[in-house]
């Protein structure tokens, strides 16, 4: 089925603008054409003039009250059952998808969304929009401003209040992540220098792979959202991590942001974390307990990097949180540091010849293994799981592969079901069963339909 979307024609915009004129404030009238030009004609056709004018008036009011470096979030419930949401911010990367992620997280259908980015000049209690397409001609005080406006169906007053608070928090986190992006890269560079020039208990090849992985992260394969340092004190049996005095960056500059939790309890050190700290492993890759408000609404990726003093004694951990970019999910496992060493270890220990049917099936199992899991799983568990997947190629059947989180917070389970036996009802029954077996709840599920 083919579909098309269109912007309002010049004639249609003029007719609508004439109809809206009596309903618009003076400052909103000059803004109306810009806003209408961002909307889809079919979306506008389903809305009343009262709703459209309310949106434009709220945008104008938001622009009037906006100050550089700050966020303005406005909501309004209309008598006709529609609701208005407006967010005004300095234009920043990730802002639109982050704010819309918050809006879409709550009840209410998005009936219209506009997102013009305009060069705005403020003059006391008024504003003026200059030509955003010719910013070189703009006055120096003009600021590129993101205008996000939505019409919602079915959002009550309580929902609007929640959306408003969440959008304000999201905008704050976006600003912190964008502000500290370069300092975060500098901090990672320093960690790489420590590994390259310092003393560690790890093998040289492991150090080189860790450095390659961190360099790979910096090469646009990871969206850095926060960094925090921890100092280690005490011995192997009772040692603890404590937050360092070094300022945290990005969204972790908020002292109340917790990376690790078990249930509602936040923690920095557990027996499982202590085991990692006492091992020769330089890195750990896992998931934070919190979903990202920035960019994508998914659980944050957490990368822990151990730090050593001049004598090779553990002195702390550098914790990075963010999101792997799309390239991390599409590139071959052979081309991703840290992951490639796991794949190489599994292939090397396999009894299958590389060019045999089973050898090729094993490589395919590694290439198609859920990529988030591939970053987190140990080589030993990966080898066991990959061999089980290879066996499924010859005889498809139900197979359950589980991996407890090394910090004892969650269990990740991959369930293979023959295609003809899979349905939404089967998925619900599987989730209910697993939640009961592990005395927990299902926090997320991801159906996939691989070939074969």
Mean pLDDT: 90
- Structural class by secondary-structure content: alpha+beta
Termini separation comes to: 28 Å
Number of DSSP strands?
16
Number of helices: 15
Q: What is the overall silhouette?
A: globular
Radius of gyration: 26 Å
**Regions with little confidence, pLDDT below 50 for 5+ residues:** 132-138
> What does the largest sheet look like?
6 strands, antiparallel
From the structure above, extract its key features.
single chain, 6-stranded antiparallel beta sheet, 15 helices
Structure description:
- The structure is a single chain.
- This protein has 452 residues and is α+β, with helices and mostly antiparallel strands.
- Helices cover 41% and strands 24% of the residues.
- The chain has 15 helices and 16 strands.
- The chain has helices spanning 10-20, 26-38, 41-44, 49-65, 95-104, 157-179, 181-197, 204-221, 271-278, 327-330, 339-349, 357-368, 371-376, 379-394, 424-437; strands spanning 72-77, 82-90, 109-114, 117-123, 126-130, 143-153, 222-233, 240-243, 249-250, 261-262, 265-266, 283-291, 299-308, 314-324, 399-404, 411-416.
- Strands 1, 2, 3, 4, 5 and 6 form a six-stranded antiparallel β-sheet that branches. Strands 7, 8, 9, 12, 13 and 14 form a six-stranded antiparallel β-sheet that branches. A two-stranded antiparallel ribbon has the order 10-11.
- A hairpin with a 2-residue loop joins β4 (117-123) and β5 (126-130).
- The longest helix is centred in the middle third of the chain and has 23 residues, at 157-179.
- The model is unreliable at 132-138 (pLDDT under 50).
């Amino acid at each position: 089925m083919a579909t098309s979307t269109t912007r309002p024609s010049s004639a249609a915009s003029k007719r609508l603008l004439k109809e809206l004129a009596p309903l618009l404030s003076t400052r909103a009238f000059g803004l109306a054409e810009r806003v209408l030009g961002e909307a889809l004609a079919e979306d506008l056709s389903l809305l009343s003039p009262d709703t459209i004018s309310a949106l434009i008036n709220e945008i104008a009011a938001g622009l009037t009250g906006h100050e550089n470096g700050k966020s303005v979030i406005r909501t309004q419930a209309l008598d006709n059952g529609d609701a208005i949401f407006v967010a005004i911010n300095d234009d920043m990367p990730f802002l639109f998808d982050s704010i819309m992620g918050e809006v879409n997280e709550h009840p209410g259908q998005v009936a219209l969304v506009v997102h013009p980015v305009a060069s705005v000049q403020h003059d006391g209690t008024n504003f003026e929009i200059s030509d955003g397409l010719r910013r070189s001609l703009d006055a120096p005080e003009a600021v590129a401003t993101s205008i996000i406006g939505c019409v919602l169906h079915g959002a009550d007053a309580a929902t609007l209040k929640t959306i408003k608070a969440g959008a304000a928090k999201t905008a704050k986190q976006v600003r912190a992540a964008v502000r500290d992006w370069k300092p975060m890269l500098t901090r990672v560079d320093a960690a790489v220098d420590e590994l390259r020039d310092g003393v560690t208990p790890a093998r040289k090849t492991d150090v080189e792979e860790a450095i390659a992985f961190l360099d790979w992260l910096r090469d646009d394969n990871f969206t850095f959202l926060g960094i925090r340092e921890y100092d280690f004190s005490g011995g192997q049996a009772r040692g603890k991590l404590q937050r360092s005095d070094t300022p945290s960056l990005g969204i972790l500059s908020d002292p109340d942001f917790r990376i690790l939790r078990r249930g509602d309890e936040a923690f920095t050190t557990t027996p499982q974390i202590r085991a990692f700290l006492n091992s020769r492993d330089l890195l750990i890759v896992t998931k934070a307990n919190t979903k990202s408000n920035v960019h994508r609404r998914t659980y944050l990726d957490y990368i822990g990097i151990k730090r050593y003093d001049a004598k090779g004694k553990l002195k702390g951990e550098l914790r990075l949180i963010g999101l792997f970019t799309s390239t991390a999910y599409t590139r071959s496992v052979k081309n991703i540091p840290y992951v490639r060493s796991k794949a190489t270890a599994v292939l090397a220990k396999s009894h299958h010849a590389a060019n045999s049917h089973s050898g090729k099936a094993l490589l395919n199992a590694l290439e198609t293994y859920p990529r988030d899991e591939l970053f987190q799983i140990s080589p030993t568990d990966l080898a066991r799981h990959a061999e089980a997947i290879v066996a499924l190629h010859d005889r498809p059947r139900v197979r359950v592969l589980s991996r407890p989180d090394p910090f004892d917070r969650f269990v990740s389970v991959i369930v293979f079901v023959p295609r003809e036996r899979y349905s939404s009802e089967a998925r619900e029954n599987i989730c209910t069963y697993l939640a009961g077996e592990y005395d927990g709840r299902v926090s997320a599920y991801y159906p996939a339909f691989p070939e074969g």
